[in-house]
Amino acid sequence: MNPDPTELQALEQMLGHEFRDASLLQLALTHPSASGNQSKPSDDNQQMEFLGDAILQAVISEALYRLHPGKDEGHLTKVRAGLVNGASLAAKAAALGLEQHLVLGRGQRTEFERGKESALEDALEALVAALYLDGGLDAARDFVSRIFAEELANPDSIPAIDNPKGELQERLQGGTGVSPTYELLSASGPAHDRKFEVAVLQAGKELGRGTGGSKKEAESRAASAALDRLRN
Questions:
Q1: What is the pTM of this model?
Q2: What does each C-alpha distance from 142 to 40, 56, 157 come to in angstroms?
Q3: Which of 13, 35, 90, 203 is the 20 to 30 Å CA partner of 97?
């Protein structure tokens, strides 16, 4: 079932962008449970979430770079991690009222509630991708800059969070100059309850593995496993 056109118009007003291709906005709001177990990657918002994650990281990085030229790289990396972590993005999505616009599979409300934070995080990232695909980088940048305006202006107010991927990146680059890479080993389970296994590697050598309900969670756990191994 597609979102009501009136609701989409209200959402466009909140986003500050009128979509030329409304199907992009609809896809960004389509939870995996709505596309069925035999769905293709393009049937829900998961591919868009992948793109939106990268755009969000780039926009936040650029904003921090421009607004705070006196801050060192390590500090800005931690600030960025605090802004784009799952809890932060889910909170922004909730504040924007995205939940009421999401398209879920029939009878999947209970399953959605179990993974609500991850679903809201994915929806916000997918919306950033939809804005980028429809209106270019300026449209995505305007939206991200607006909803994170207070945090971007006051980075010292952002609480420090556990950031194993960032810590591993700094440790490996500082020691050898070679960044870690992440390899998806497997993805299983129904669309609304996926399980991912990821390995983190450096120069082809596996350093650790992790599993989680999203690729990002699995990557974070793989990085944690790698850090534990390097410390011992």
A1: 0.75
A2: 31, 11, 22
A3: 35
Is 53 marked active-site? yes
Residue appearing with tokens 């009878």:
107
State the Cα–Cα distance between residues 77 and 65, nearest whole angstrom. 10
Distances (CA, A) of 131 to 20, 24, 52, 94, 154: 10, 8, 9, 18, 25
Q: How does pLDDT run across 175-222, given as a tens digit for each residue?
A: 777 889 999 999 888 766 778 999 999 989 999 999 998 888 899 899
User: Which residues touch 74 (CB under 8 Å, ≥6 apart)?
Assistant: 170
Burial of 27 (0-12, 13-18, 19+ CB in 10 A): buried
Contacts of 27 (CB under 8 A, 6+ apart): 42, 44, 45, 48, 126, 130
Q: Is the pLDDT of residue 6 over 80?
A: no
Q: Can 162 be counted among the known catalytic residues? A: no
Per-residue b/e over 88-101, b at no fewer than 16 CB within 10 Å?
Answer: bbbebbeebebeeb
DSSP letter at 120 equals: H
Catalytically annotated residue among 44, 49, 121, 125:
125
CA–CA separation, 68 vs 31, rounded Å? 36
Q: What CA–CA distance (Å, rounded) separates 59 from 81?
A: 13
Catalytic residue (one of 44, 49, 53, 134): 53
Distances, alpha carbon 96 to alpha carbons 11, 76, 88, 100, 171, in Å: 9, 26, 13, 10, 36
Q: What SS3 class is residue 72? A: coil
